[in-house]
Amino acid sequence: MAGRPRPRYSVSSYSYSNNPVLQRPVEPAQYTSDEFQRWCSGNGITQSMGAVGVCWDNAVAENFFSHLKTEFYHHERFTNRADARTAVMDYIESWYNRRRPNRRAGGVPPATALTAHQTRSQEPLAA
Predict the structure, then answer these.
(1) Cα distance between residue 23 and residue 45, in whole Å
(2) Residue 26 lies in a domain
(3) pTM
(4) How far does the chain reach from its first CA to its final CA, in angstroms?
(5) pLDDT recorded at residue 48
(6) Where is the Integrase catalytic domain (predicted)?
(7) CA separation for the pair 34, 53 (Å, rounded)
(8) Which range among 8-12, 42-46, 109-113 shows the weakest confidence by mean pLDDT?
């Protein structure tokens, strides 16, 4: 067991068990290591990480992927990856960004909310 983390034991509020708890195949620390960051940088990959314990960096992505799965993915069948990629881009550009009402944006689609925000930002603050 050298080089591997020791098993942790369950101490949940529901029950106590001496059985080892399943470990993730890759620990989160590997994603923040200097070596992995250099690899990402060398391969043109931009990492998106917030501070430890901050959930907001994932909230937007998780919300989007939840909608993608429930509104689109589970209703479709694809014959190959190219068809899937094309269909996902069509969902994002023609439905999600341009027509789908967004509750947090006042019931308007994201593209409409962005245009309104940019228009407001360009108005003079005072006369």
Answers:
(1) 26
(2) no
(3) 0.50
(4) 72
(5) 67
(6) 1-118
(7) 20
(8) 8-12
Give the model's pLDDT for residue 12. 47
From the centroid of its chain, how far is CA 127? 42
Is the Cα dihedral 46, 51, 52, 56 positive or negative? Answer: negative
31 found inside a domain: no
The single-letter code of the amino acid at 13 is S
Confirm whether 63 is domain-assigned.
no
The total domain count for the chain is 1
Cα separation, 13 vs 30, in Å, equals 29
CA–CA separation, 92 vs 113, rounded Å?
Answer: 15
Domain that holds residue 116: 77-127
- pLDDT tens per residue across span 23-46: 455 556 666 678 878 888 888 877
